[in-house]
């Protein structure tokens, strides 16, 4: 018996003016007018996260139709990667052009969820632009990669409010993609793709020939 095909859903695609209109196109810094470029994007069912060239993260809540802004203290630098996660708490990880990585634990109105915005910093291991971020499904592990080939593992304890980071792998070329599941980290670089087994700390390359 032939299987019944699932129905086709037609969707109309259009610019998200309600989102774009909430982000300034220019900001004033002293006597200078600085153009704001959108540099990073991630979405899930609850949020749309947009990184910018001025170091500001714009986070649009789909349920409340509200835009909130988060930034790094100090130097104004471009955000290069953002990664959302919805688990028991809503989390967003942000990476910048100089290698700074921060995690924001978002406020939730639901009972038993986080009631105060908290930020965790991955301290001083990356020295160059962040090119990839990957969460574990429970939000306790964050992996970050940069354009010099460094991959950092950060263990988050949201109850204790701690973030402990360490360098776990260093590749000779830029990291372009990270994905984590079941104690295995998928790593793609400009030269190769590999599986990194986090418990054994062993590497298994996918394929034998380097990328051209």
TrEMBL record:
A matching Pfam family: WD40
Annotated SUPFAM superfamilies: WD40 repeat-like
One BP term from GO: protein exit from endoplasmic reticulum
One GO CC term on file: cytoplasm
Xref: InterPro entries: WD40/YVTN_repeat-like_dom_sf (IPR015943), WD40_repeat_dom_sf (IPR036322), WD40_rpt (IPR001680)
SMART domains: WD40
Name of the molecule in the record: TCPR2 protein
Organism whose genome encodes this protein: Sakesphorus luctuosus
């Amino acid at each position: 018996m032939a299987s019944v095909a699932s129905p086709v859903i037609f969707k109309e695609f259009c610019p998200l003016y309600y989102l774009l209109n909430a982000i300034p196109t220019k900001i004033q810094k002293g006597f200078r007018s600085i153009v704001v470029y959108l540099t990073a994007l991630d979405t899930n069912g609850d949020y749309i996260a947009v990184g910018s060239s001025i170091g500001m993260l714009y986070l649009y809540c789909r349920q409340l139709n509200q835009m909130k802004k988060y930034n790094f203290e100090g130097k104004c630098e471009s955000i290069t990667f953002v990664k959302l996660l919805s688990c028991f708490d809503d989390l967003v990880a942000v990476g910048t052009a100089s290698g700074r990585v921060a995690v924001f634990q978002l406020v939730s109105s639901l009972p038993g969820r986080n009631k105060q915005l908290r930020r965790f910093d991955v301290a001083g291991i990356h020295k160059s632009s962040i090119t990839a971020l990957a969460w574990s499904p429970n939000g306790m592990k964050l992996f970050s990669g940069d354009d010099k080939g460094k991959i950092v593992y950060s263990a988050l304890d949201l109850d204790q409010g701690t973030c402990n980071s360490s360098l776990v792998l260093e590749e000779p070329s830029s990291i372009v993609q990270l994905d984590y599941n079941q104690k295995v980290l998928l790593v793609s670089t400009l030269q190769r793709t590999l599986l990194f087994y986090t418990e054994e700390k062993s590497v298994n390359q996918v394929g034998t020939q380097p990328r051209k």
